[in-house]
Amino acid sequence: MKFSYSWLTEHLKTNVHFEEIEKKLTSIGLEVEDIQDTGKAYQDFIVGQVLEEKKHPNADKLKLCKVDIGKEKVDVVCGAPNVEKGMKVVYAPVGSTIPVNQMKIKAAKIRGVESYGMMCSEYELGISNEHDGIIRLEEKETIGRPFSEIYGLNDIVIEIGITPNRQDCLGVKGIARDLASAGMGELLERKISKEKGSFKSPIKIEIQDNKICSAFAGRYFRNVKNTESPEWLKNKLKSIGLRPISALVDITNFVMYDENRPLHVYDADKINGKIIVRAANDGESFQALDEKDYHLKNGMCVIADEKKVLGLGGIMGGESTGCSTETKNVLLESALFDEINTAKTGRNLSILSDARYRFERGIDPNSTLKGIDLATQLILEICGGECSEVELAGNIKENKNEVSTSSSYISRRLGFEVSDKELISILSSLGIETSQTGDVIKCSIPSWRQDIHGEADISEEVIRIKGYENIPTSNIRLKSKINKNILNYAQKKLMKARHFIASIEYDELVTFSFTDSKNCEVFGDINNLKIVNPISEELDILRPNLLPNLLQAIKKNKNRNFDSFSIFEIGSQYRSTFPEDQLNVACGIKSGIKTEKSWKNMQTEFDIYDVKQDLTSLIDYLMPGNKKISVSNDCPSWYHPGRSGSIKINNSVIAGYFGELHPSVANQFKIKNKTNIFELYLDELPNTEKKTTNKPVLNLSDFQIVTRDFAFVIDKKVKSEEVVTSAFKVDKELIRNVEIFDLFEDDSLGKDKKSIAIKVTLQSNEKTLAENDISEISSKIIESVEKSTSGTVRS
Amino acid sequence: MKDFRELETEIKKASDKFTNIESINEFRIKFLGKKGIISLEMKELASLSGDERKQHAEKLNKIKDSVLEIIASKTEELNSKELEKKLNSETLDITLSTSKSYGTIHPISQVIEEVITIFGDLDFFVAEGPEVETDYNNFTALNTSEHHPARQMHDTFYVETETDGMPNVLRTHTSPVQIRSMLKQKPPIRLIAPGKTFRCDNDQTHSPMFHQVEGLVIDQESNMSHLKGCLEIFLKTFFETDKLNMRFRPSHFPFTEPSAEVDIGYTKKGNQLIIGEGEDWLEILGCGMVHPNVLENVNINSNEYQGYAFGMGIERLAMLKYGISDLRTFFDSDLRWNKHYGFSPLNIPSIIGDLS
After folding, report:
1. For residue B353, is it within any domain?
2. Which of 253-292 (B) contact A at CB < 8 A?
């Protein structure tokens, strides 16, 4: 909401310095967003009179002028075609700055002749686009008078942000009222003459649906002249960024910004019969003042005559009854439209208007007739003519809210003592009448404050006027804890996973929860992930998986010359757009160069064993202690079928996957390097929150450790893990570790064969193992592995 | 009586010629070997008798000890010469190096963990809720009815599913977590809820996805002055400064009454923002006393209980604290940015150690 300081002072008698008013506005909740001191920008420009005008000796198009600026007479070289002797002009002295281009005027020789200052056009002053000649002021202007006074520019324009509850401050008067309540001066009442009207309005008004419009006041004016508005009115509207149109329209705009009272004027000669306020029917349409056609829906509030729709109540008038310079007879409307209906209709038709903005926030019912009176006075003064009596349909209900409160309630909420006396005094400064019975203070809320409904609202009013800076600061530390845990198990898991993954070289990314449906077909059904109003076509669904955005990131960074990627994200992916269908997933990618070629190392690339190790050690970190991790080949379709695995913990559900990205998905993202990924479904990890702080008992053996190596030739199809597990199970006590240390494939073994070499570590808790103990267990190991892998031991 | 002087001279002579370990070995064999001179002499002792044997034995043992001592000291001497020689030949270029790198923690995660650490110390637990929300939780329960003008300021994303006849939304703020938590838990309540939020807005200063942290305290006495105290500790700890100009000014949120916006003072030195000092104000968060209607909506008696709530933008906190100038870079996945602004995975924010 914009207003000028001079406009404000029409409602506020004050001797407080402007800077203090500016601070107070913010401190009472009317946040100052911008201040423009136009007076300052124009302060140097004054009225001058051209005394002499002759040709420049060295230039055809320039003229030499002597200009009287009051305290002296100066020589000015001027190029304007319209300059002439005796003309009153706007003079910019040496040292002033030209608004349009910020050029600073200096004393200078122009084609050999000294020039002091400049005579200005409207364009140069940034007032209009008129640059054919310099401004010709009226003859009567006094030499030396500040130019800003003449154009009404000696003012400060203030822009404040109005929160949705403060509908009362959408007019300058309301702002003045709030400032007066906060001790910034005295609220002035505008003197408005109450015309009775000399005849009955020939246009009758009928409200058919009083839920959408509770009151409609109309007044008929005949024989008006819809001229251009007078300077004062035009300057006022211009100062707050509104374009003057014609006197009738300008008057309604003025009343709206002054009193927060939207009005409308109809060309009465274009109305057929009476005015009917009713709900629209499906299929009706009309052309609004913005020259667009709108198709209406059932229930929207329309103002119609007996033939057609004339306007949308509280939102916008229609083209057909708009006022023009030919308009002779008008109908002035001041009505009370329903807030919700106005909001709904406006949103439905996407019409933003000053009237809608105000009606959906709630209008002071008392402004209905006041608005008519103020507009009547201005119309008669500017446009002449005669007015009818006011025709009122419906009821103007005052809806005075009553709220009971007490100083103890207010004190308890605000955190400091507010006495009855102080409370009552603050409320009365806001126009809230009070009556006290015992501790209870009954408040009668004025009609302009539609936002005050309860005690909590009263507490805000008190602290707003008293000043938020007066709230004391209290300690919030508690004597005893109220929460057992700050983070729960699942939250800790996420945080631990994040730090662990980053510690093994992955960079954490945070990408949008949206993604491009075109990249996601491979991730399953995406039809149930649609966003109704996406920000762009490329972000049209909730992500079914973290991968698409991470792959996109790899693609982008390749263009930035990265050739090694270790990235991860921990976040949610979605099964559907129901709130409960959100999963926590950790997803990591290693792709490209693992070790750079260097003086020490050969260049190597990441492979699936890197991400497998990362995933299993992550699981180990998150779930310390005994567990069985098993791997199988069943992976979703975005993995390379032969180079991927799923991970089950304790043979229950699948907790994650690792493997190489399917070549066709890689291709879709234009990634050429092998891309190795892991996904861990964090919600699926069994809860292993420790129940005791004790660690398991430690059993140490001091007897000698023995190792034995074995190699087996087995079918390539058989998983090498089988060799390890079948060796392990021979003796769970003696066998401490089994490790694969070699994998060998060669035609000499047979085409479909491979050799797996294992190292078995043996140790007893009771004795040093003798050679025969060792050979006994060795043959058992060979037997067991051969049996379960159908392989043979290599000798 | 035999004189061993000759033997002693021979020993002396031989011991001067040591050049390596082998020559020491030869020396040992020559005198102490099975057939060594001293060993043979020892054997002969048997043929002697009485005092003579005793005297010879004494003498011979002395000589034997001296030989052993020579062997030990010469071996030691040679070994250390040998080692010195070896060390002199074994040099590596220590200016060469290999590298070990860590990954990075995203600034959003870092700041969220810092916020949790500070509020955790004040006995707030971390609550959470889903990113897709019901219209009821996101708006209606928060005292924002269907046609409330505040809804239009939210630029809500809608999805195709519905709950109770209303389309579900991507939550526009973390405030619905207040509702979910209060339905689950009775007062006293102290919680924060960090998380992702969404608004249909995309320009220089808006991102369609961003992060907020919500705070909620409900008990029988918490009031505006506690709210002020709470935010003062938080902001001072977070910005790691003792000086903090803080300004409360009235604002409006449908779910709090009174509502306030909080500004902090700052000055600009060059390109750097100095938080806490100075005459200029930066808006940092919104807060207020929880509206009685919100409490009633979750079946908490608003005559008995009251409290405050606050909400702030994680990106804004990160930008101000760490001097990140552009909001949109957070989600741009430019690895140069991540490596520059990211944090070491080893510095987990802590009250006893460093916050950042």
Report:
1. no
2. 254, 257-261, 289, 291-292
